[in-house]
Each structure stands twice: as structure tokens, then as C-alpha cells.
Amino acid sequence: MNILHVKTPEGEYPIHIGAGALDHARFDGAGVCALITNSRVRALHAPRVLAALRARGFDPRVIVIPDGEQFKNLDTLRAIYDQLIDARLERSSIIFALGGGVVGDVAGFAAATFLRGVVFVQMPTTLLAMVDSSIGGKVGVDHPRGKNLIGAFKQPRAVIADTTMLATLPDVEWRAGMAEVVKHGIIGDAELFEILETRNWKLEIGNWIARAIRVKVEIVARDPFERGERAKLNLGHTFAHALETLSDYRLRHGEAVAIGLVCATWLAARRGLCDDALIARIENLLRAIGLPTRVPREFSADALFAAMQTDKKRVGARLRFILPRAIGAVALVDDVPMAEVIAGIEKTR
Ligand SMILES: NC(=O)c1ccc[n+]([C@@H]2O[C@H](COP(=O)([O-])OP(=O)(O)OC[C@H]3O[C@@H](n4cnc5c(N)ncnc54)[C@H](O)[C@@H]3O)[C@@H](O)[C@H]2O)c1
To answer: Is the CB of 101 under 6 A from ligand 1?
Structure first.
């Protein structure tokens, strides 16, 4: 068991990490609370969580949302508000989010807005949610015109990342989360990257999960409202969003991030920011995990470049890239010419 403490503008909260974190974590409060989850996670993990809540004196009301990104929307939110009102939740009540990033984002937005804000506890059940979405306070829902367009910053009271819940996670979801873990190694933890290279990462998750979480924790503590350094977390993501869009979301986010990491490293090598050897090193690890690393031939470099122009992370007319310098260090580069971006894509086929 590990506990990391996250500093936020409003104070500090703990992330309890490891096998059995649910049983070890202390969290106070009592009375009526809401456990928001989805249909799939409810069947797999809610009984254990409900027992843990009852043992701590809570009277939990379960709110189940349908499974899938397509339900991360205002209709789902409205149904949640209705049930929170029916359950007579008060300002001092707690909303627990049990699930992946979708449940965490939508339940977090409900917690940020219901009665102008109630206490929120994250119980992430996917690898991606543990290492990424449950940290940093960003919550929200999608709008038909775009992903995550409606949202807020809502810091949780605690995060409980019990890795035993990952036992039921399908392989494809593991790989999606691993793309972000590799990204965290490249951004800020060379030793994390080496552990993944040399060990059986799935069996030995206890050896690295807290490190993977810490990379994001440290960055968001320094930049809670995404005004500067937090951009580092977008390593590979400008390419990834363009790939996802062009593939009509047939490429999953984690797969697109993996390809984006390789494109970004090509670009970095071409600009002399890192050695060519870094490309092979990153690509080998991603391949060993089972992630794709090459831009599919069906997408032209021009089409990808055009898709990048609509990326939210643009700074004025220029495209901003986060580029690796080494394992554990990245640079923020604002002035990359179009020809170099296109060359980076072509080299990564
Ligand atoms: N708030 C943030 O900072 C942030 C950061 C990154 C991503 N996100 C958001 O997170 C979402 C993606 O999260 P995700 O990858 O966790 O997807 P998800 O929540 O859709 O979960 C993936 C699938 O795994 C299932 N699942 C969850 N836990 C399981 C378990 N323990 N065993 C078996 N199945 C399980 C889910 O029901 C779902 O079918 C996106 O909406 C994205 O926008 C938010």
C-alpha cells in the first residue's frame, strides 16, 4: 500500500494505491451517500465496495449509468441529479465514483455542481483512470459538438486506487492505460520506463503503479488549472487526436497515443532534441505491450496535419508540440514548421 498526497489550491488529499487499498483507506463521513457506477462495474465490484461503505457507517444509494463514452453526456447527468434529489443527498454528503474515466468524469461533474458542490471520492477501476483521469481534478461531460466541452475543476476528497479491481479488466483496456503509463515514464520518470522494459509489467504492477501516478500528481500540483506545465501531459496527443478523428474512432485513444509517442520522438530526433536511438527504445516498449506504433498507410500526412489544426491545444496559429529529449525529460516547442511535422508522420509509417 502506498499513499501519495496531492497538493491542490484548496488543500491536500490522499491517493491510496495498491492491492486492498479499499480496505486500508480511511475516509470519514457517515449517513446517506451516493455510489455512482456503470452497469458493468456494478456487477463486478459494487458488492465489495458497498460492504466497505456500510462497514464505515455509510448508507449508500447506488446510481447506475449505462456503460460507454456515448453516455458521458447531459442526459446521463440529468438522470443522476434526479436520483441524488430522490436520495436526499445533502451538502455534506459524499458522492463516490466507482468505474473508469467515464464514470469518474460524469460523477465528478455531478459532485461539482449538485447543491453547488458536494464531497467527491474517486474509486478508479481502469488502469487509465488510476494513472490519469482520476488525478488532477478535471471533470465533465461531452457535447454532441465535441468531447469534454462541458466541465469543471473538482478536486476529490480522496482517491482509492485498489489494483485488485484490475483483475477483471480486459486486455484491450490494460493496453490503453499502458500507453499513458509509458507516456508518464517519458515525461518524468526514467526508472518507471526501465521497470516496464525489464519486468513483467502486468504481474508486477505493484512495483510501478504509484510511480506512474506520481508523475501526473507532481505536474498537476505545480499547474492545477492547466496554464503551463500541465501541457507536458499532452505528449503524443496532438498526433493522437488527429489519428482518432481520421479513423472515425476505430483507433482507440491509447492506440493513437502510442503511435503519437513515436511520431513525437521522430520529430524530436529530426530537430536534434534527442538521439535516434530513443525512437527504437520507445517503439520497442510499446510493441512489447501490444500497442501499435506506426501511422496507418490509409491516412495521408496532409490529412493528419489538417486534422491537427483543429486540436484544442493550439496556441494561436502555431502548433504546439511536447517532444522527448530523453527518457524522463520533455521540451515544449511552439515553432515546428509544417514540413517537419509531415516528415515526422512519413517516417513513422
Ligand atoms: N478527467 C481527466 O483528466 C481525464 C483524463 C483522461 C481521460 N479522461 C476520460 O476518461 C475516459 C476514458 O476512461 P477509461 O479508459 O477508463 O474508459 P471507460 O470508463 O469507458 O472504461 C473502459 C471500459 O472498461 C470497463 N471497466 C471499467 N473498470 C473495469 C474493471 N475493473 N473490470 C472490467 N471492466 C471494467 C468499463 O465499463 C468500460 O466498458 C474518457 O471519457 C476520457 O475523456 C479524463
So the answer is: yes
Q: Is 226 in the pocket of ligand 1 (CB under 6 A)?
A: no
Q: Which residue from 289, 155, 175 is spatially nearest to 217, judged by alpha carbons?
A: 155
Q: From the CA of 279, how far away is ligand 1's center (Å)?
A: 29
Mean pLDDT of 22-34: 88
Domain ranges of the chain: 2-168, 172-347
38 lines ligand 1 (CB under 6 A): yes
Ligand 1 mean position to 103 CA, how many Å? 7
Query: For the domain bounded by 2-168, which CATH number is listed?
Result: 3.40.50.1970
Q: Which of 3, 27, 6 is nearest to 17 (CA)?
A: 3
Q: Whose CA is nearest to atom 33 of ligand 1?
A: 169
pLDDT value at 336 more than 60: yes
- Mean pLDDT, residues 210-218 taken together: 98
Handedness of CA 115, 120, 125, 128 (dihedral sign): positive
Sign of the dihedral through C-alpha 7, 8, 12, 17 = negative
CATH class of 172-347: mainly alpha
